[in-house]
Design goal:
38% of the residues are buried. By secondary structure, the protein is mainly beta. It has a single domain, classed as Alpha-ketoglutarate-dependent dioxygenase AlkB-like (Jelly Rolls, Sandwich). It starts with 21 loop residues before the first strand and ends with a strand. It is built from two helices and 13 strands, in the order ββαβββαββββββββ. Bound molecules: 2-oxoglutaric acid and manganese (II) ion (MN). The site of 2-oxoglutaric acid has 12 residues, from strand 6, strand 9, strand 12 and strand 13.
Length: 218
Amino acid sequence: MENPKDCTQATRTAAPRPAPTAEVREAALHAGWLDPAEQAAIVTDIRKVVEAAPLFSPLTPWGKPMSVRMTSAGKYGWYSDRKGYRYEGHHPCGTPWPPIPDRVLAIWRAFVSAERMPDCCLVNFYGPGSRMGLHQDRDEADFRWPVLSVSLGDDARFRIGGTDRSGPTESVWLRSGDVLVLGGAARLAYHGIDRVAPGTSTLLPKGGRINLTLRVVD
Ligand SMILES: O=C(O)CCC(=O)C(=O)O
Ligand SMILES: [Mn+2]
């Protein structure tokens, strides 16, 4: 890749990408991509990730704990504290991040690439009242690789705008089993989660929402 700041989406070499069910400001939504059995199998995989690398609440650079609890799988984990947003090679307790589950990598292969696997699978857990403010995913070296996100559990109100923080936004409900790809013009779009609707899914016995975000980091 010659110009890593170019957002022209990297292309896979095998079969064409599945067509989205909807486009939300140039993000590709694949509603209901994972059936309930596949969702349950991925939750089992993610429980093992969380056993090896427990969820924690990162601090924002302003010193406030985030309402979303997180962990990661892969070569790098996303991390934040008073020093800023970044990727780290180890969980805060010092152990390497566990590998990204094969079932999760299969989703990346279907939408992005069979040759270049993601370096990070960020696992976000939204409990009661958790939300995520508008932000860009911009801690990666090469924006030509899209960001792929998988929603599991309760419905979430996802907001997306453009590359200007104060520009217009649109919102869409992300439901369990949905896959969203932020690539091309949407790669650096501001986005966030306004709220999660409790009791809208039976996938997680205690409720809440898991979001998996797959990214190429370096
Ligand atoms: O939870 C989501 O759907 C979005 C998560 C996100 O934007 C992030 O972790 O950077
Ligand atoms: Mn994001």
